[in-house]
Amino acid sequence: MISTDLSGLNAERADVTVIGSGPAGITLALECARLGKSVLLLESGGNAASEEAQSLSLATICDRNTHDDMAIAVARRFGGTSNLWGARCQRLDPIDFAQRPGVVEAKWPITRDDILPFYDIACEYASCGKPVFASAIENLKLEDSVVDPCRLERFSNRPAFQTAHKESLSSSRALDVRLNATVVDFELDESGRIEKLVVATPDRKRTIIPVKTAIIACGGLESTRLLLAIQRKHPDMFGGLDGPLGRYYMGHVIGEIADIVFSTEEIDRAYDFFIDGNGSYARRRMILSDKVILDDRLLNCAFWPVVPPVSDSRHGSSILSLVYLAFAVGPIGRALVAEAIRIRHVPPGVATLPHIRNILLDIPHALAYLPGFFNRRYFAEMRLPGFFIRNPGRRYGLSYHQEQFPDPASRVQLNGEADMFGLPRLTIDLKFNRTNADALVRSHERLEEWLVQSRLGALRYRFPKEELADAVLAQASHGTHQIGTARMGLDRRTAVVDGDLRTFDSSNLYVVSSAVMPTSGQANPTLSVVALAARLAQHLASVG
User: Any idea where the Glucose-methanol-choline oxidoreductase C-terminal domain is (predicted)?
Assistant: First the structure.
């Protein structure tokens, strides 16, 4: 059942109460229901985006040059941030769980083998085909390579979870979904257990809901915000005011400081989007081996080729200029790609006339491209996740996606402002330090060595080598992955939740979001968060 009416909720406790209906919340709710639990799923927003609901997540951002606006980092509506998701799906790597003294001190309380079995069902919920994450490149044989050139990312065919799982969400007798239901407070007993939730509706009426087990699944920032609100009333909880809660805030280090030039047609073709026969589009990424990362004290990083900056009309491409003009019109651009991606392609001060000139000079090419693109993007069962246009020179931008160093000074805190329900707002201070930049430059150097030695290509840097680290930091900006602020660990001194995602200080309160990940890895986090949600459902079913 899906309803906006909260009547009857104060009478009976569900086995499991899930707060948040994004990828983690929907997966957890459906899995718990499938495993025999009664589930109440609470979502702050409604079916559609609402300015009033979205305003609940407004925050103070210390540096807007390094953090995305909350409008593209949080979605207060049914389906949560799956409505903003770029659809990328990858698994965490073995190196992400390894001990790396002096580089990354964070320790996972679980192993990769603990989460690995749950990627199968995570791929089902994410609608990204079978869990196949490697694909050999034809005629490419490399032994003991410093780079894995065959790692796959998969792409969701139906990114919006509430749409992909509409039938199950509506028909499950064990699942009760309530929209426009914002959790604004928690009532605890003397031991710290959650006894009741205080839930507010848009008309500002409040309902008290008794709970047996509560799970916060509101995305990284909003999950942390609720925990901080509990801590404000109970200062000794979650490691105390100087503890780990809200600290170690991470995303990924992204950008481009070099171009890549491929040597052969085969390697050039290998990095285009393709349907691999396993149920979705996929694409290869180049990733340094675990041995290289350990030996060279690097951070985990992925590389892949991208088209030249579409905003720079000097590319002379009618198709790229057409893409830029589409991105520049907000509603059209948002229909093409995730908003976080769109805004990075439309910097201020770009003249439109040169782009129009590019299109007019090559109208036939542009018109020939459009029908196939729109058919594959919007009407095919397996949707094309983006655009990549190969060129005769085989030269492309080299995009990087590096894990961020976990820094306790990079953090989120409550401030003195409050939303319309009285819940304190966040101050967000995401920091990128020199460690991130220096490691990334060294990773480029190792990739370059491998390309040249393997005769597969070369790099062409866009900046003098002595300026590369500064160029990395100048581009460093994130905010959609929201990792580390309620991390899992071995004890309450260093972490907020244990390996089962149960908070150390409240025996019936769990958290499942990207915030619980102690390291960020090179992979986008959504698929791993969904896997953690499926694992948590199994745990909850096993404990009765």
Answer: 406-533
* Beta-carbon count within 10 A of 229 CB: 17
Chain-centroid distance, C-alpha 106: 20
Name residues whose C-beta falls within 8 Å of residue 140's C-beta, 6 or more positions apart in sequence: 149, 150, 266, 267, 270, 456
pLDDT one-digit tens code per residue, 247-276: 999 999 999 999 999 999 999 999 999 999
Query: For residue 78, how many other CB atoms are within 10 A of its CB?
Result: 28
The C-alpha angle with vertex 31 and arms to 1 and 151, in degrees rounded to 5, equals: 125
- Long-range CB pairs of 427-430 (<8 Å, 24+ gap) are 427/59, 427/60, 427/62, 428/59, 428/60, 428/61, 428/62, 428/67, 428/221, 428/249, 428/479, 429/62, 429/63, 429/249, 430/62, 430/63, 430/66, 430/67, 430/249, 430/251, 430/478, 430/479
Contact of 199 with 187, CB cutoff 8 Å: no
Helical H segments across 375-433, by residue range: none
pTM above 0.70, yes or no: yes
DSSP 179-214: SS-EEEEEEE-TTS-EEEEEEE-TT--EEEEE-SSE
Q: pLDDT tens digits, residue range 332-378?
A: 778 777 787 788 788 888 999 999 998 898 888 888 887 887 788 77
Domains and CATH numbers, the chain: 2-60+75-251+401-425+483-542 (3.50.50.60)
